[in-house]
Design a protein that fits this description.
Layout lengths: L1 H24 L2 H16 L3 H24 L6 H7 L7 H18 L19 H33 L5 H17 L6 H7 L1
């Protein structure tokens, strides 16, 4: 039918455009979030559907990289930043240092935590779980971890059963993964809405 043919054309085009936008943004967090969501969605499917999905995804990724290579996007600073996952640009090493300092502060103040920001810097750790530990101490942090694990397991089971709200579940996983790399408890409105 006409509608099916358009889906066959528009779906790969939309995916390819999305990959292009993620790559040119120069940020690794959204790429990790999308990879995580695609992985979760794929393992929630039947084996036959998962194999077909893996073929489609690898075809789209291959097509995207062919387009990127032929359009000479390798010279874009944003693309180079993504390829430089070792963190030589400073962002990865700075995040790891913030995580280390944040956890040390939690261990120094285990009951109530040291607060959301790293003292004297005005920075926060860019990781929602670590922020919960910093803001509420070990007990509140463990409660947050338990809650996120329970929500994730329940959501995965709903996704596996093809619940009608599956798209919201996928958004929740995308927001949750994103919040592990660049999120904050106070600025996670999309995550809280998708959990609700």
């Amino acid at each position: 039918s006409f509608q099916t043919r358009w889906r066959f054309v528009l779906f790969p085009a939309a995916i390819t455009l999305s990959i292009y936008v993620m790559v040119t943004s120069g940020s690794r967090g959204p790429i990790l979030a999308v990879v995580g969501v695609v992985f979760i969605y794929t393992i929630s499917m039947s084996i036959r559907t998962a194999i077909i999905m893996c073929f489609i995804i690898s075809s789209i990724i291959t097509l995207s990289f062919i387009i990127i290579k032929n359009a000479n996007f390798y010279n874009l600073a944003a693309f180079q930043r993504i390829l430089n996952a070792s963190g030589e640009d400073g962002s990865v090493s700075a995040r790891l240092e913030m995580y280390s300092i944040g956890w040390d502060l939690v261990l120094q103040n285990p009951l109530f935590g040291p607060g959301i920001e790293i003292p004297g810097t005005g920075f926060y750790p860019h990781n929602i779980i670590l922020e919960f530990f910093m803001a509420t101490g070990l007990i509140g942090g463990m409660l947050a971890v338990f809650s996120f694990v329970a929500i994730s397991l329940h959501s995965y089971l709903l996704l596996k059963r093809r619940h009608p709200s599956g798209w919201v579940i996928l958004l929740m996983f995308q927001f949750l993964i994103s919040e592990m790399f660049s999120g904050g408890v106070y600025a996670s409105g999309a995550l809280w809405c998708s959990i609700a």
